[in-house]
Amino acid sequence: MRRLWLVALPLALLAGCRSGSAPADSGRPVVMSQAQYEQAMSETRILSYDALSRFESGMPLDETDRDGLGKSALLFEAMAAYKPANFAPRYGAGKTYYALGRYEEAAQSLRQALANARLGTSHDLDMGIAEAHRTLSETYTAQDKLEEGLQEADASLAIVETPSALAARAAALIQLQRVDEADAALRKALQMDREHPRSLTLRKLIELAR
Length: 210
Description:
The protein contains ten helices and two strands, in the order H-E-E-H-H-H-H-H-H-H-H-H. By secondary structure, it is an all-alpha fold. The chain starts with a helix and ends with a helix.
């Protein structure tokens, strides 16, 4: 249930935005009205929900998943162009780019999302900020920016402790050769969700290395 919440959160935040998709001549979507915004929001839900659910569960993405996520990323970018100061479209783009392995774009989108957000505005936004920090942590770690990855995981955990943020912290710590700290984070994550896929995978890596 927690993993489904992580996938649904960007779409829930988008649903709460008051901001608009029509294809441009270039083939890229353009959002210019509230009606178009709502249409784009609906399309991102259809295109990305199942793929992001599989990704969060540790399953590989197939070509259909990747195609849908690529289209979703364009829609998120169109929404962000329409409302550049809005957190949600940048956050959705960042999560989508991360799942696609497009780490530079993911990091840029997530940094922009966080620059647009303020804690304490609403519970959903606070949870979105925590998730943006967590995804940025995973993005930095994938880029071998390990200290930055650790800092972003800790920023997420300072807002709310989740198995995913603890696993993100552990992933950075493992590569920093701080294995005992990583193991402690993973044990805590698995106490919260004993079937958390990434935590289980990282624990196995630690056990194999010992």
